[in-house]
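User: For my dataset I need records formatted as: sequence, then structure tokens, nothing else. Please produce one.
Assistant:
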Amino acid sequence: MDLGAGCGETAFFYLNHGADHVICVESDPEAVAHLRRNFEGDSRVTILPVHVDSVKIDIEGSEDGMVLETHFPFRFRSVRQLGPNVKLWRLEKRWFSLHNFRIAAAHKIRTAVLDKLGL
């Protein structure tokens, strides 16, 4: 599952490295249009044009060693203790970082140059 799929770079990566199916979740209408164009007719990709506020991962113990990948610097903030071994956490994005600036610039370049060239 690719939350915040953008135009599908990560979905391409997953598919090229053995994934049978990728679910792309994206709320930006422009990015959804790119996703649809990039994966038109590809039955291995499901596109969900929705906004996600919260994510729960509960796969009965397989969370141990799970990889959480994000493109943005963040920090975890404890929200509340739910039980002796269960804590609720919130990811807090830092508002400015050089990485965020580079990602924004890359998206602008793609829109301004590559999409106009049909690439």
